[in-house]
Design goal:
The protein is built from five helices and five strands, in the order βαβαβαβαβα. It is α/β, with parallel strands linked by helices and 139 residues long. Helix 1 crosses helix 5 and helix 2 crosses helix 3. The longest helix has 19 residues. It is globular, with a radius of gyration of 14 Å.
């Protein structure tokens, strides 16, 4: 958890997917709700994403995956967090992810998967409950 009282979230588009409209909408909604958002952009490798999260002292990483590579991308980010002893960073995300893959992603350690149709209110509420509540419990 960051030393400040502001929740910090790194958002990223891993892999070769170039469609970032959705993640930008989420970034704006989270910012409007008082979350400090660091959007690292398109075509990020898992290593780049984890490096950014560590450098920014992020509380969470949010991944937007529309390419079908969600199992690989989420899995690698989680592996890197374990390797770098940073499992306190919460990983969540969304995109075009089949319902049947969600339980496996959760078993890997993904805290929440948002599928098409999720609203910004739903995402904000989850971030608020999961990250701000955690911050309050740690104080």
């Amino acid at each position: 958890m960051s030393a400040t009282s502001v929740v910090r979230v790194v958002l990223a588009k891993p892999g070769l997917d170039g469609h970032d409209r959705g993640v930008k909408v989420v970034a704006r909604a989270l910012r409007d709700a008082g979350v400090e958002v660091i959007y690292v952009g398109l075509r990020q490798t898992p290593e780049m994403i984890v490096d950014a999260a560590l450098q920014e002292d992020a509380d969470a990483i949010g991944l937007s995956v529309l390419s079908g590579a969600h199992m690989t991308m989420f899995g690698r980010v989680l592996d890197l967090l374990r390797e770098r002893d940073a499992t306190d960073i919460v990983v969540f995300g969304g995109g075009i992810i089949p319902d049947e893959d969600i339980p496996e992603l959760e078993s890997l350690g993904v805290a929440k998967v948002f599928t098409p149709g999720a609203t910004t209110v739903e995402i904000n509420d989850w971030v608020d409950r999961r990250l701000r509540r955690r911050e309050t419990e740690e104080v």
